[in-house]
């Protein structure tokens, strides 16, 4: 077994790592941007794939990765894990359907509610205490999912026709344009000091440093990693001002991991 994931602000990394390690402590867990990921996947029959839900869809980088490596999935047993701030409908189903098209066997879909990562919108902002409770509940969910996977009694969250309809009409249809491809809408303001951190951490290598200034390209997958980590809060995407930078690491000392 191997765990692979896209995680902008750490939620999905945490969930997939914990789930995989509960099932098989010796299994690898790697991000999609790992340079040897294809070889690593090839060595494993069962793959747990995790990602953050974006407008009830899988991030474009995840769908692109699946499509670019279409031959990789034939016969592989997949468990799709979608993390989300509130609602996804068929978050796990979005990748599962693609993987199935390329010959994968879908064992399970798991939905895990986590704190919201969109730090330049007020919409789903919660107090620290509330987020802490959400993470504790997520922990219990991960234990349950691991137990069931080990027993071969798989959760099917996000995989049914009802969840497909909920995801489609709940959000995806109305916001489809937002996740139809990569975006060029990342904005960097004059507070930027040119430290280069955003360019270093972007999983898409979408930000290039030139003459000490960051230049965002048109390959942003909206993961919010650079936006939540910029020391000057100079980066925005969906909103126009950073309200509160979210990083899962900030919760590590607050919750019993
Ligand atoms: C661009 C964007 C769109 C999002 N859309 C949704 C959504 O439709 N529903 C939802 O419940 N959460 C949504 N979220 C919240 C994330 O799915 C959630 O916080 C996730 O756990 C973040 O995972 P990460 O820390 O691994 O990146 C969205 C986040 C981003 C960045
Ligand atoms: S991380 Fe922020 S301050 Fe540093 S280069 Fe990027 S935008 Fe500028
Ligand atoms: S530019 Fe920022 S938000 Fe976009 S993919 Fe890179 S790190 Fe994520």
TrEMBL record:
Organism: Roseburia intestinalis
Protein name: Iron-sulfur protein
UniProt entry keywords in alphabetical sequence: Iron, Iron-sulfur, Metal-binding
Gene3D superfamilies associated with the record: 3.30.70.20, 3.40.50.360
GO terms of molecular function: iron-sulfur cluster binding; metal ion binding
Keyword Iron-sulfur among UniProt keywords: yes
InterPro entries hit by this protein: 4Fe4S_Fe-S-bd, 4Fe4S_Fe_S_CS, EFR1-like, Flavoprotein-like_sf
Domain 4Fe-4S ferredoxin-type as annotated: residue spans: 184-212, 218-240
Domain of life: Bacteria
SUPFAM superfamilies on file: 4Fe-4S ferredoxins (SSF54862), Flavoproteins (SSF52218)
